[in-house]
User: Which sequence fits this backbone?
């Protein structure tokens, strides 16, 4: 079954903790993206990666980190430096300069 | 920098009525244009896209959109709305010729409510 999977669906974090959100794809797409969604603000780009071992900051990268060791995987770490991490996080993939396809999302809540 | 405006935050229509969701963009180059739909707690699903050619594009679920360069608009339409169309709709604009990654700028979304 092809597609994009994100895990976990719900994640709870205590103040001062780092947490990692998983994004996996079997679409053989080169590019992968992480977005943050807050009510009334649409989607904002955190990081994106065009190829393995390469990634670039998006518009709101502060407090986040990523890695791209495999084509299929693009995990996002929300660090303790991110002051307001409660949000819905969406992963997307694309083939070259083509349409982006989205995963089901992870809802992160800070306790 | 590019920007996307969806002027309607919330729209309510009756089932069976026609629908038009507005999208205006500010861009210095030829854009890629997209409409996505999102149900609560879910990811985004592509409805349709415009890259070039015919300015009236057809999408899934009976939706269509028209690219009007002179008005910098890409409005989404549906002739007869179904109750299952209730969701949030996002317009997005993408850069062309940026290597292998397509950076998108999203509007803030329009929430559609359908009354029976």
Assistant:
């Amino acid at each position: 079954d092809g597609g994009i999977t994100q895990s976990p669906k719900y994640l709870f974090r205590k103040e001062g903790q780092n947490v990692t959100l998983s994004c996996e794809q079997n679409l053989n797409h080169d590019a992968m993206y992480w977005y943050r969604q807050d009510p009334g603000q649409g989607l904002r780009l955190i990081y994106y990666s065009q190829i393995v071992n390469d990634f670039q900051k998006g518009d709101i990268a502060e407090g986040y980190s990523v890695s791209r060791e495999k084509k299929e995987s693009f995990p996002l770490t929300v660090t303790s430096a991110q002051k307001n991490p409660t949000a819905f996080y969406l992963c997307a993939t694309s083939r070259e300069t083509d349409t982006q396809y989205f995963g089901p999302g992870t809802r992160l809540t800070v306790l | 920098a590019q920007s996307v405006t969806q002027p309607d935050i919330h729209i309510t229509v009756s089932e069976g009525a026609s629908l038009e969701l507005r999208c205006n963009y500010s861009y210095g180059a030829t854009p890629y244009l997209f409409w996505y739909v999102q149900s609560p707690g879910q990811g985004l699903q592509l409805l349709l896209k415009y890259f070039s050619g015919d300015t009236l594009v057809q999408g899934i679920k009976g939706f269509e959109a028209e690219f009007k360069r002179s008005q910098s608009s890409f409005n989404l339409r549906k002739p007869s709305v179904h109750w299952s169309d209730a969701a949030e709709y996002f317009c997005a604009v993408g850069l062309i010729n940026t290597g292998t990654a397509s950076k998108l700028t999203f509007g803030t979304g329009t929430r559609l409510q359908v009354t029976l």
About this structure: The mean pLDDT of chain B is 92.
